[in-house]
UniProtKB/TrEMBL annotation:
Keywords: Membrane, Signal, Transmembrane, Transmembrane helix. Residues 102-408 form the Receptor ligand binding region domain. It comes from Hypsibius exemplaris. Residues 1-23 form the signal peptide. The chain crosses the membrane at residues 465-491. Pfam families: ANF_receptor. It comes from the Eukaryota. Its main location: membrane. This is Receptor ligand binding region domain-containing protein. GO terms for cellular component: membrane. GO terms for biological process: signal transduction. It is found in: Membrane. GO terms for molecular function: peptide hormone binding; signaling receptor activity. InterPro entries: ANF_lig-bd_rcpt, ANP_Clearance_Receptor, Peripla_BP_I.
Length: 538
C-alpha cells in the first residue's frame, strides 16, 4: 500500500514535471432499466455529448476515456440503493485499474441511490455528478464533499415561487389537489408525488399564514372519466378560491380544467395553479381542435409553474444524434415524443459540462485534482451547454429559474407570463400576459364577499344578512383602498433604490433569453403522455 502511494506520488511528479496532463476516466453508473433513468434511456445522452465534445475539442480531450457500470433489471429507488454497495466493489476495482488517472463518477440514480454512492465517493475522494437526484440532503458538504447535482427540475424553487405568488396576490386560503399517495401507481409521477409532500409540508407548516386544505383523488381513475373529477373539485370549491393542482399527466390536467369549466369554476373567481415537471407545458392538452376550441375558456384560469424547458430548437441536431445512437447502439427506436426527454437532456448537460471543466484545466491543475477540489470548480458558476443555462449553486446543487405560463386567447398557446430568476438575485421579469385575468381586472380575491359557499349572503332579504353584507362590502372596499394606498406608497417609496426592489420589478437589463411561446400538439384523450416527454416544436 505504502509502496503504491509512493509510486503514485513519483508518477504524479514525473507527469507534472514533464507538463503531461493526467488522463481522465469517466465512469457512468446506471442501475436498472427504468424508462426515464435506466441504461437505454440515459446512455445515448452521455454518448452523444461525449463524442460531440471530443469532436469539437479533440486535442484537450484526447486523454479522456469512459466506461459504464450497469446492472440490468427493474428496481425501485430503495432496491437500487441496496444494490449500490455491490456495484461499489466493481467500481473499486476499476478505480484501482485506473489509479494513475483522474476518475469521475456520473449517476442518473434517484436520490437514495446517489446518497449511498455519495458515501463511497467521499471515501474514494472521487467526484460524483448526479443527473436526476434532487434530495436537499445531498447539499450536506460534510457527508457529500464530492457530490454535484444537475437535476433540471428543482422542487424547492417551485415551492419558493408558489409562496411568492401567494403573497403577491394576498392569497392565503388554498386548496391542494393531489393523487392519493396510498393508492400510488408504482413508477409513475414521482415528481408529483414528492411535490405534493413538499407543498403540503411547506404551506401546511405555516399555519399562521396559510389555511391549507388538501384533497386527494384516486390516481387510478380513467383520464376522460369526467365525473370522477367533479367531486374533488366541488370539495375544493367550497373551501378556497385558489387551487393548486398536482396532476401527473397533461391529459388529466386538461380533464380537470374541462370539469372546472363544466362546474362554472373558470369564470374568473377561481385560479388554478399547476406546478409541472419540465416538459412542454401544454403537451397533450388539446387546447384547440380545428375551429372548435374546447379548452380556450377553461385554460384562462390556469397558471403553469415549472423550471425552464430546454431550448428544443437549439438541440435539434443533438436530438437527432441521440435518436440515431439509441437505435443503433441500444436497439431502441424513439418516437417523436420519447426523443424530447428532459432527463436525457440532463444527461447531455452533465457530460458536456464535465468535459468543459476538464478542458479548462491546465495540465498542472489537472494533476493535483481530487474529488473535493474538483467539486469546487463547479460551484457558483453558470454553464451554457446548447440546451439552456445551467447554474450550480454554492452548495453543489443546480439552482433553476422558474417560469409561469398563462393562456393567450389570441394565439391559443400557453405563453410565459412571468420569469422568476433564482440565479439573477431572485428577481422577477413580467410579460404582458402577467396582468391578464379571466373576466376581471385583477387576480381573483382570496375570499368572496359571500363566503366560499355563499353562506354569508343566504336569505338575501333577511335584515342581518343585509347588514352583514353591507358591513363586509364596506370593509372590503376599505381594505381595497388601504391596499391601493399601501401599494402606491410601496411602489413610489421603492422606485428610487435598486437594491430594495420587490421581486416582481422589471429588470430588463438581466441577461436572460425570453423563451419563445411554446407550441403544442394535440393527442387523443387516451394518449398517455410521460411526464418527462415533450411534443415536437421544431
Ligand atoms: C495525452 O497523453 C499523451 C501520452 O501520454 C501525451 O503525450 C499528451 O500530451 C496528453 N494530452 C493531453 C492533452 O494531456
Ligand atoms: C375534435 O372535435 C370533434 C367534434 O367537436 C370530435 O368529434 C373529435 O373527436 C375531436 N378530435 C379530437 C382529436 O379529440
Ligand atoms: C442520423 O442517421 C441518419 C440516417 O442514418 C443520418 O442521415 C443522419 O445524418 C444522422 N443524424 C445525426 C445527427 O447523426
Ligand atoms: C431489438 O429489440 C427488439 C424488440 O424491440 C427485439 O425483438 C430484438 O431481438 C432486439 N435486437 C437485439 C439485437 O437485441
Ligand atoms: C460560492 O459563493 C459563496 C457565497 O455565495 C461563497 O461562500 C463560496 O466561497 C463560493 N464558493 C466558491 C467555490 O467560489
Ligand atoms: C398573445 O398572442 C398574440 C399573437 O401571437 C400577441 O400579439 C400578443 O401580444 C399576445 N398577448 C399577450 C398579452 O401576450
Amino acid at each position: 500500500m505504502v509502496r503504491q502511494i509512493g509510486l503514485r506520488a513519483l508518477l504524479i511528479l514525473i507527469v507534472s514535471r514533464s507538463g503531461f496532463s493526467k488522463a481522465v476516466h469517466v465512469i457512468t453508473v446506471i442501475i436498472g432499466d427504468s424508462p426515464t433513468m435506466g441504461y437505454v434511456a440515459q446512455s445515448p445522452g452521455y454518448d452523444v455529448a461525449f463524442s460531440r465534445e471530443v469532436g469539437l475539442f479533440p486535442s484537450p480531450l484526447q486523454n479522456v476515456t469512459r466506461q459504464t457500470v450497469y446492472r440490468p433489471g427493474a428496481f425501485s429507488c430503495s432496491e437500487a440503493a441496496e444494490i449500490i454497495p455491490f456495484v461499489a466493489v466493481e467500481i473499486s476495482n476499476i478505480l484501482d485499474e485506473h489509479r494513475f488517472d483522474f476518475n469521475v463518477l456520473i449517476s442518473p440514480g434517484c436520490s437514495l441511490e446517489v446518497m449511498t454512492l455519495g458515501d463511497f465517493a467521499r471515501e474514494w475522494n472521487v467526484p460524483l455528478l448526479a443527473t436526476v437526484a434532487i434530495d436537499q440532503s445531498l447539499s450536506n458538504v460534510q457527508r457529500y464533499p464530492t457530490v454535484v447535482t444537475f437535476a433540471s427540475s428543482e422542487q424547492m424553487s417551485l415551492i419558493r415561487v408558489m409562496m411568492f405568488l401567494l403573497d403577491r396576490f394576498s392569497w392565503t386560503t388554498i386548496g391542494l389537489i393531489c393523487e392519493d399517495p396510498n393508492l400510488k401507481v408504482p413508477d409513475r409521477g414521482v415528481f408529483y408525488f414528492t411535490a405534493c409532500r413538499g407543498f403540503r409540508t411547506a404551506l401546511g407548516g405555516q399555519k399562521h399564514k396559510y389555511n391549507l386544505n388538501v384533497h386527494y383523488f384516486d390516481p387510478k381513475i380513467k383520464e376522460g372519466d369526467l365525473d370522477a373529477y367533479s367531486s374533488v373539485l366541488r370539495n375544493a370549491a367550497t373551501q378556497s378560491r385558489v387551487i393548486i393542482l398536482l396532476i401527473t399527466t397533461n391529459p388529466r390536467l386538461r380533464d380537470f380544467m374541462m370539469n372546472a369549466e363544466r362546474l362554472g369554476m373558470t369564470e374568473g373567481d377561481y385560479i388554478f395553479i399547476a406546478p409541472r415537471s419540465p416538459l412542454l407545458p401544454t403537451e397533450g392538452m388539446q387546447i384547440r381542435n380545428g375551429s372548435h376550441r374546447p379548452a380556450d375558456s377553461a385554460f384562462q384560469s390556469l397558471m403553469l409553474v415549472y423550471n425552464p424547458n430546454p431550448n428544443w430548437a437549439a438541440l435539434h441536431e443533438v436530438l437527432q444524434s441521440i435518436r440515431n445512437v439509441s437505435e443503433v447502439r441500444y436497439n431502441k427506436s424513439l418516437t417523436n415524443i420519447e426523443m424530447l426527454n428532459d432527463i436525457t437532456v440532463s444527461a447531455f448537460e452533465v457530460m458536456t459540462i464535465l468535459l468543459k471543466v476538464i478542458r479548462d484545466l491546465s495540465p498542472l491543475d489537472m494533476n493535483v485534482q481530487n474529488g473535493i477540489t474538483f467539486r469546487q470548480l463547479f460551484l457558483n458558476r453558470t454553464f451554457n451547454p446548447l440546451s439552456r443555462p445551467v447554474y450550480i449553486g454554492p452548495k453543489g446543487m443546480r439552482i433553476c429559474d422558474v417560469h409561469i405560463s398563462k393562456f393567450n386567447v389570441t394565439s391559443g398557446l400557453m405563453e410565459v407570463s412571468d420569469e422568476y430568476l433564482s440565479v439573477a438575485g431572485n428577481s422577477v421579469r413580467t410579460h404582458a400576459l402577467s396582468t391578464v385575468w379571466r373576466g376581471r381586472d385583477g387576480p381573483p380575491v382570496n375570499r368572496p364577499f359571500c363566503g366560499y359557499t355563499g353562506e354569508l349572503c343566504l336569505g338575501g332579504l333577511a335584515k342581518t344578512a343585509v347588514i352583514t353584507l353591507a358591513v363586509s362590502i364596506s370593509t372590503a372596499l376599505l381594505a381595497t383602498l388601504a391596499i391601493f394606498i399601501a401599494m402606491y406608497h410601496c411602489i413610489l417609496g421603492r422606485s428610487g433604490h435598486g437594491s430594495g426592489r420587490p421581486w416582481w420589478d422589471l429588470q430588463p437589463d438581466l441577461l436572460f433569453v425570453t423563451p419563445k411561446p411554446t407550441a403544442w400538439k394535440s393527442l387523443s384523450s387516451h394518449g398517455e403522455v410521460s411526464t418527462n416527454s415533450l411534443g415536437p416544436v421544431f
